[in-house]
UniProtKB/TrEMBL annotation:
This is GDP-L-fucose synthase. Substrate binds at R190, W205, R212, D281. Pathway: Nucleotide-sugar biosynthesis; GDP-L-fucose biosynthesis via de novo pathway; GDP-L-fucose from GDP-alpha-D-mannose: step 2/2. The active site is at Y139 (proton donor/acceptor). Residues 9-234 form the NAD-dependent epimerase/dehydratase domain.
Length: 325
């Protein structure tokens, strides 16, 4: 499909890890008219402000990457914030896009939408077939609502609002807070500090037994643009009206213990690993079935060790300015 490089593309959440990667990807492809708005310019929680922004800009496409995100600790500590803010942001943007004639939108969700004990690897059909992981249920419900918003606007108004569900993401511009971050940035920060301090050990939360899949954010950005750019006939062959979301991942997982060993090697920490079994493990296994995306012609290109090495190199260059919120 030939790209119109002059289309006005609004990337919501452009300062976040995924949003910034999408902006980089779009620029690399030659897109000339990428619209972004910082939080002090546009409050995505304010419906009036969002409507005004869309009215004032002739937007052709929207990448909805804005979200409040965090790891197990953050989700457990701030459940009301996670469900409220994510519901408001996605509802405001999707409604404003529709009201202002935006035909194409891509909503970025999360693999946590699937039941805690979903058969592995998790297929798109597993959605709403069982109970969610309690530690991040409010966030997951908000993301499920986003999928259903897109489906509903497609059914009622004929819009082309697509949804992609990434597995666990990591990479530059991640949140490196030691408590409120996801597993890879939190672990990287911990190993780095232990290396500098010549510590004898690093403590890793949980038993180390859960299985997780990790996708570099640059791969996620590439997949997002790929799915957005698919022509209608190719896309519709692999999508059902009531099953419109697509999994994005590598199709390969590893134990948290294996991740820690790889991180130890990448960072260059020479001490030992200690697993704190008093901390929660979360879902026993999370592996995405990515056969639908592969059938559409895309697959991940960055290995875990390569991605971690690239991320650590970026971390070292930016450690003084990292987000720690």
């Amino acid at each position: 499909m030939a790209r119109d490089l002059n289309q006005a593309i609004f990337v919501a959440g452009h300062r976040g890890m995924v949003g910034s990667a999408i902006v980089r990807r779009l620029k690399a492809l030659g897109y000339q008219n990428i619209l972004t708005a910082a939080r002090d310019e546009l409050n995505l929680l304010d419906q009036v402000e969002v409507q005004r922004y869309f009215q004032g800009n002739h937007i052709d496409q929207v990448y909805l990457a804005a979200a409040r995100v965090g790891g197990i600790h953050a989700n457990s500590t701030y459940p009301a914030d996670f469900i409220y803010e994510n519901l408001m942001v996605e509802a405001n943007i999707i409604q404003a896009a529709h009201m202002n004639g935006v035909q194409k939108l891509l909503f970025l969700g999360s693999s946590c939408i699937y039941p805690k004990h979903a058969p592995q690897p998790m297929k798109e059909e597993a959605l709403l077939t069982g109970g969610l992981e309690p530690t991040n249920e409010p966030y997951a419900i908000a993301k499920i609502a986003g999928i259903k918003l897109c489906e509903s606007y497609n059914r009622q108004h004929g819009r082309d609002y697509r949804s992609v569900m990434p597995t666990n993401l990591y990479g530059q511009n991640d949140n490196f807070h030691p408590e409120n971050s996801h597993v890879i940035p939190a672990m990287m920060q911990r190993f780095h500090e232990a290396k500098l301090a010549n510590a004898r050990e690093v403590v890793v939360w949980g038993s180390g037994k859960p299985m997780r899949e990790f996708l570099h954010v640059d791969d996620m950005a590439a997949a997002s643009v790929y799915v957005m750019d698919l022509d209608d006939s190719t896309y519709s062959k692999n999508i059902q009206p009531m099953l419109s979301h697509i999994n994005v991942g590598t199709g390969v997982d590893c134990t948290i213990c294996d991740l820690a060993e790889t991180m130890k090697r990448v960072v260059g920490f020479e001490g030992k690993l200690v697993f704190d079994t008093s901390k929660p493990d979360g879902t026993p296994r999370k592996l995405m079935d990515v056969s639908r995306l592969r059938a559409l012609g895309w697959q991940a290109a960055i290995s875990l060790e390569t991605g971690l090495a690239n991320t650590y190199a970026w971390f070292l260059q930016n450690v003084a300015d990292l987000r720690v919120k």
